[in-house]
Every structure is written in structure tokens, then in C-alpha cells.
């Protein structure tokens, strides 16, 4: 089984979001970038399935500029066998999907995994686009993934429940908890990651279909109105008469 | 040129989020000087579909194929693409749900359309550009995105736009067939399992949410959360560590790595307000925080707060709600 795991490079979850003065770009100054937390489920599950089968390969793919390489090496340290970086700034979901589809086609991957969405752009788009470009099924968002031969059984989250879905390889799944316990690199992994192959290739395809005109921060709260604990019941009156939400 | 709206139905009824989507679509149609047609998925009664007229829909396409009751991304994509071609739709509006957004992403490739998910406002179409505002950075920011090309797909975030309502208006329900075959349903679920809902309110669709954190001390104390939720008709939720240790099921976990909610009211009980938690809830219209620590960061993001012990405060709130009703 050949696994392709797509990872994106995102600001650490504790990042206070700020933009450049013209509000056109995310301000990267002083920000630490990590592997997108959802992608960690995809990566660990691929490694687990490869280990369980006793054969196969896990390739990580990132669309990004050279500054993403530390996180690609981290994915190799966690247990991926090799890596591909498409050397381009990710412009939009469509552009990224084109890159992934091209790599997947070229490499003949059986299982294409990624996180549910990236925590920076929150698209929840790439999985479906890749599936449609390749003409194969997509299961998103998947909470569980098992393989038996060429058949995969997945749990897909729906509002208020889940669906059990069975598909044959090749397919695309976007992953989320509780699929597995994401692994962290150990010392041996970090050592071997240094010499694992990382191929850098140029981007392909059409230009992006969407562009960000401007970013904005949410409006600030007015400040909290405190109600003494003894008179907790007054809160309910305020919610009815002042906030008018109940 | 027209607007096509995808309405999700369950148990015969149009979902609340899809009523919002229908009014959003009708308003976009009005902006562009055209009409909005709906295509229904998931099985609804004809009367419920006809009443989409109240949201401003003029026509509803309905494919009676029984397998469309369950979600199949392949089949839904083909259904909606066929309807879009027939109606010459240039704008397609869906819910930003696990159905709507999933099918929207496939559709964007099939129909060569530009796509924006998680959209929170009506588009701005002045100046020759088509710009939508969408949530980004896990609720910590917004981005205004220019959609290019002749066709555009918009997935609208729940509870971010209001469902309009003009009582008594009726849409024409027209039967429609996308000629779906067995092969189109290859990715259909073999089984669907719905959760038990405390009080029957689904968290992703809820207008009111009562949420508990580690300050609740243990699963045995969740009765306090559930009592208040029940009295209010609210859904229950929790912080990540609470679902990590299985005090509560994973699907109740809200935040950056859980689900994002934007109810009218979010009541946080014994939750500190870590940045990752806030990301999932800070688009709630009104936030109430109950925490015994006056320094808890959540108070900075709150509209109302009580500095106090949840075990004393919660029963008082529940009693006050019961008194009010
Ligand atoms: C990559 C990453 C992703 C994450 N994603 C999420 C996410 O999606 N969602 C999420 O929630 N967290 C997430 N977290 C975790 C987050 O950082 C916090 O650890 C978590 O939100 C804390 O949960 P809590 O507020 O329930 O617990 P705590 O931080 O332990 O807070 C408990 C609070 O309860 C109060 N309290 C205690 N007893 C009482 C009492 N008797 N009465 C009143 N108040 C009381 C305390 O004062 C305290 O403020 C993430 C972390 C990381 C690193």
C-alpha cells in the first residue's frame, strides 16, 4: 500500500493572529509554525496502517516554500519514509489540490490522507477537489480508518452522528480525532529523518481561483458585566430582557 | 443566470441551517436581479419544500430517488451539477456543513467554479468584483475573498445570517431527475448511527449551548450542566480535556481542534478560556462565563460573568430559568 499524506505548515495554536499594516497578509513575525494538528492524525494513522500490514510506504507531501522544511523533517522523524515538497507558496485550496492531484497521479498512490482542514485558512476543501480531479471517492471528515486488502472502512462524522462508509482504493480521506493518538518524534526518528529523501519539485497547473483582498480581526468585546454569585438568578433576567437571547 | 440553493433535509424537514442558506441565496439573487431555485437533498415532504417560498425561493427541484436520503458525495455532486446546468446557475449556495462543504469542494472542480467556505455575510458585488467575508484562523480572524470566474460556490456558516421569513409564500415544487445509477452511490454509507442527544438538541445546529470544562471535576457532575441545558432547550458541549478523558463524548468537544459553534448564547462553566477553546466559540453572539477564578482569561472574551463556584451557581441558574418559563 502506498500512502500519500499531505501536511500543511500552520501557525502554532497559541498564536495571536495579526496582519501586515495593509491587512493583506498574515504577519509571520515571531510566529512559530507547526504541522497542522489535523494532519498529524493522517500521518500517524498512515504509519500505523503501514506497520500493521508489514509493508508499504508513507510519503509526506507539502506545498510550500523552503521555510516549511523543518516541519517536513519532523514528519519524517515521526515515521514517514520520504517526502516531496512542491516549491510554491500555497495560493488557494484549488491551487494546492492541483499540486496534490498531480503528485498522486504520478506516484500511483493508493491512499491519500490529509487533515480535515488547515487551522489557518479553514477551507475544508482540498480533499474533495483532489478526489474530483482524480475521479476517486473522498471521505471527509473521517474519524476512523481501517484497511483490509484494498477495502477501507471509515467512519465519517455528520452533524449529530456518524456514517460507516466502505470504499476501495484509491481514495482520499480527510482525518480528525479520534482516529489515533498522534505520535511525536523520538530520538532515533530524528536522527534517521536527516538522511531520508526529500524531493523538491516545481508547481503545475492553473492559477488560483480565489484571492484574499483583506484580512480583518473580530470586533472587540465591550467588556464583561459581572453579576454577584449570590444573585446568580439575575443573570437569567438579563439574558431575557437585555441580551434578548432566551 | 440564476442562483441555485442546496437545501439539506432530515426526517421530512428542511434543516434550520438550510433555511438560512435559502434566504441567503434568495438575497444574493435579489442583489443580482435574478431568482433563486432550490435543490433538495435528504428527503423532505412536498409541503415543507413548498414553504421554502417563505425564504424567497421561487422553485424547488426534487429528485425522488430514495437513495438520496443518505449522503453520497458522488451522487450529490452529480445531482447538483445536473441541476446547476439545467438552471444555468452562476451562483450555488450550500450550508457549511459536513455535507454542504464536502460536496461543494467536488462541485467546484466539476463545474470549474471558484469556492468559498465558512462564509459569514452576503457578498459585496460593487466595483465589478465578487467579494465574500469568511471566517479564517479558526475563528480568530476573517478574510475578504475575491471569487473569480463565471461560476461561484458559497458555503454559508451556520447562524451567521438570519433566516428570513415571509409567511404564507409558496415555492413551486418540480420533480427532477439526474438519472442516478448504482455506480453513483458507490460511496454511500453502509450504516448511519445517530447520537443520543441530551434534551434532543443537536450541538452544531443549537442556538443555545451550555458547556462544561475541567472545573466540573468529573462526569458525575454533568447533571448540573444537563439540567440547565434542558431548562433552556440548549445543547451541551465541553472543552477538549473533558472529552480527552472521556467524561463526555468527542462530538461535544468545541474549539480549534473540535467543532466551531456560533450560537446566540454560549454559557461556559468551569472553563478557563484557553486561546484554542476561544477559537471555537468566540463568534457566539453572547458569551456567559462562570468561573471561580476572577483572573480566568475567559472573562476577557465574555459579555456576562459570574465569579463563583459552578456547583453553587448552576442550580440557581436552572431554578431561575424554570421560574421564568
Ligand atoms: C494543539 C492544541 C489544540 C487544542 N485544541 C483545543 C480545543 O479545540 N478545545 C479546547 O477546549 N481546548 C483545546 N486545547 C487545550 C487548551 O489549551 C486548554 O488546555 C483547555 O481548553 C482547557 O480546558 P478547561 O478550560 O476545561 O480546563 P482548565 O484549563 O483546567 O480550566 C478549568 C477552569 O475551571 C475553573 N474551576 C475549577 N473549579 C471550579 C469551580 N468549582 N467552579 C467554577 N470554576 C471552577 C478553574 O478556575 C479553571 O479556570 C488545545 C491545546 C493544544 C495544544
TrEMBL record, chain A:
The keyword Acyltransferase does not apply. GO terms for molecular function: electron transfer activity. It holds the Pfam family ETF. SUPFAM superfamilies: Adenine nucleotide alpha hydrolases-like. Residues 23-210 form the Electron transfer flavoprotein alpha/beta-subunit N-terminal domain. Keywords: Electron transport, Transport. The keyword DNA damage does not apply. InterPro entries: ETF_a/b_N, ETF_b, ETF_beta_N, Rossmann-like_a/b/a_fold. Transmembrane segments: none annotated. This is Electron transfer flavoprotein subunit beta/FixA family protein.
From TrEMBL, chain B:
Binds 1 FAD per dimer. Its cofactor is FAD. FAD binds at residues 214, 270-277, 291. It comes from Hymenobacter montanus. The keyword Ubl conjugation does not apply. InterPro entries: DHS-like_NAD/FAD-binding_dom, ETF_a/b_N, ETF_a/FixB, ETF_asu_C, Rossmann-like_a/b/a_fold. Keywords: Electron transport, FAD, Flavoprotein, Transport. GO terms for molecular function: electron transfer activity; flavin adenine dinucleotide binding. Belongs to the ETF alpha-subunit/FixB family. Residues 3-189 form the Electron transfer flavoprotein alpha/beta-subunit N-terminal domain. Gene3D superfamilies: HUPs, TPP-binding domain. GO terms for biological process: fatty acid beta-oxidation using acyl-CoA dehydrogenase. This is Electron transfer flavoprotein subunit alpha/FixB family protein. It holds the Pfam family ETF. The lineage of its organism: Bacteria, Pseudomonadati, Bacteroidota, Cytophagia, Cytophagales.
